[in-house]
Write a structure and sequence with these properties.
Blueprint lengths: L3 H17 L2 H10 L8 E7 L5 E7 L2 H14 L5
Antiparallel strand pairs: 1-2
């Protein structure tokens, strides 16, 4: 069962995060404005203050897209 107080807390934390980093939610909106396709590459780079950098990427497969669709459906409560 979902705890409503926890949802409220997470929503509040997300709002603060979005205010601190307004480009990230806009980036996610831009990405979501077009469907993902098989072969799309997602790359993530982490740069630490000391200069260490880690980068990884994945090329999306059909099963990856199925997982993303399921997650998207969960996030919208199954409503399109």
């Amino acid at each position: 069962m979902v705890n409503p107080a926890m949802i409220f807390k997470i929503k509040s934390m997300w709002d603060e995060f979005s205010n601190n980093h307004p480009k990230l939610p806009r980036f996610f909106q831009a990405v979501a404005s077009q469907p993902m396709e098989e072969g799309t590459v997602i790359e993530l780079t982490i740069s630490r203050p000391g200069g260490d950098t880690l980068t990884s990427n994945v090329k999306l497969t059909a099963s990856d897209l199925a997982l993303l669709d399921q997650l998207k459906e969960m996030g919208t409560g199954g409503m399109q």
